[in-house]
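Today's session is about reading a structure prediction critically. Students often jump straight to the picture, but the first step is always the sequence itself: look for stretches that repeat, for charged clusters, for runs of hydrophobic residues. Only then move on to the predicted structure, which in these notes is written as discrete structure tokens rather than atom positions. Here is the chain we will use throughout the hour.
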Amino acid sequence: MALRNHQSKTYITQPSSPKQPQLKKQAKQQRYLITKGERVLFLMLLTVVTILGIMIIQTQATVRATSADISLLEQQIDTTSKENTDLSIQVSELSTYKRIWKKAEELGLKLNEQNVKVVPGQ
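Below is the predicted structure for this chain, in token form.
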């Protein structure tokens, strides 16, 4: 009799089989908290944010390149302006009356009052 009681206890303590499939269904339902529509919306949002980020970076790169070009052009303008100032000083130094008269005498020219014509100034 002791053997029969021992065997009957094992049958009572074993879990019943219908409860296990219910736990698996509940576990599967809990895994998918995000629906397919939400995933699609999330991917679309991620795509839009990525595209906008790339556009912003590209615009900033273009602005920096343009700023570098402007800086280079301003530098060239300053250099040309200095050269023009230096050349205008040289012109004023080389066009003095004494220098022109000295150069004319070296070339053998003489002052003839009858051949002199007055040219209106600029």
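Discussion point for the tutorial: Residues 3 and 9 are 10 Å apart (CA to CA).
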